[in-house]
Amino acid sequence: MRRLLALVVVALLVPACSDNRNGIRDPVTEPTPPPAPAPTLTVDYRVTGTIPNTRITYFSSTQGTTQLSTDLPWVISYKTGELHPFLYLAADSPVDTFAEGTLVVQIFVNGALFREARGSGFTVSVAASGEVP
Description:
By secondary structure, this protein is mainly beta. It has 1 helix and 8 strands; from the N terminus they run αββββββββ. Helix content is 12%, strand content 47%.
């Protein structure tokens, strides 16, 4: 009788020590992968043409809106980590110059042409803008 009682006690304790509860095992916890780094975009603004002392206005996420006057060609580049940045570039002939000429503004994103505007005449004003998809 003692052997039978000992066998019953052992039979009851063995399932309690198992990590298998009613046939259901604990799921294996996988480590969470680190987030992917944000893509970096290279933005190039270019203004070309024949009008001296051209007024240029541009917007960058790093500096905000900037205005300047310069002879052409003119180029500036910057990098941004924004996913969908808004880009803006404009060029105008100066008010005191009435010489006929041309202006071309171009916005490049990662080396590819994103936006372009062209104009010609005595009073030229061109602008290109848009949100990068």
